[in-house]
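Table S2 (text version). Query chain:
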Amino acid sequence: MLIVVTINNSFFYSPEKIQIMAKNSPDEGKGIKMVEKQVDPSFSTLKEYQAKRQFSETPEPMADTVETPSRIPVFVVQKHEASHFHFDFRLEVDGVLKSWVVPKGPSMNPKDKRLAIQVEDHPLSYAHFEGVIPEGNYGAGTVEIWDSGTYAYVGNNRNISAAIKNGILEFKLHGHKLKGLFTLIHTNMDDQDRDWLLIKKDDVFAVTHVYDAKNIPLYDEVFL
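Corresponding structure-token output:
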């Protein structure tokens, strides 16, 4: 439980400094009220992530604390050599990484409509994770960062959370490999309601040739 002080609509979240701030405020005694605030709701969306993992055995981030959102939201694409090779596409949304499994990987060719299966939210610290998940653990195999950067939501909904609920979100990626406008569209192709399509928009960054993410080296390998 966190305690929040509001002084003329300004919020302070440090319980240890509540009385000090109130006492030293020029508005002391004016419109000061104590209210209770629950822990960031984004933390509760990581319960499925936590339940699937044995953190005594896997090097993956534990997600046992609420993480501070990035000033500019980030994205990451991780190459995952699991039992079924795939790519993981993740967007920072409301303090977590919304995540999709993309079997063929993202494409910079607008003609490609890549299946993206939504999975459990991941903690923000997963954006930096690389390593080997041991056999016998969920997602066992090697995880490497294939691309990363920041992104901007450019859709018509009021924010990206509303866009996800409505089943279509448009965003602009600023990565090393993935650049420009993309769309994620929710489909009805599966009975679990998890299937989306990841599609590159036709812009100055789009390509017309065959784009196979598996044949494109990791960012670090380009400079070796």
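Notes on Table S2: The helical segments are 18-24, 47-51, 160-166. The chain has three helices and twelve strands.
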